[in-house]
Design a protein that fits this description.
By secondary structure, the protein is mostly helical. It has four helices and no strands.
Length: 69
């Protein structure tokens, strides 16, 4: 994670979200999931983590395009 992004997240979410020093794709997804859960209002699917990111949607499209019916 870049230093600018880490500083921005620390400024926006000071004590609610702890940003790890080194990150991987899994920790980035977990951090994003935690932020979405904190700030979603009246949408139970978002609060429970039931959403698909644009990247996951594109991966799913690619997988379905390769599938022969």
């Amino acid at each position: 994670m870049s230093l600018k992004l880490k500083r921005l997240l620390n400024a926006l979410f000071p004590k609610m979200v702890v940003v790890p020093a080194s990150t991987s794709k899994a920790t980035s997804m977990a951090l994003a999931n935690k932020i979405v859960r904190l700030y979603s209002r009246s949408n139970l699917n978002l609060q429970r983590g039931r959403y698909v990111t644009a990247e996951q949607l594109e991966d799913r499209k690619r997988q379905l395009a390769k599938h022969s019916f």
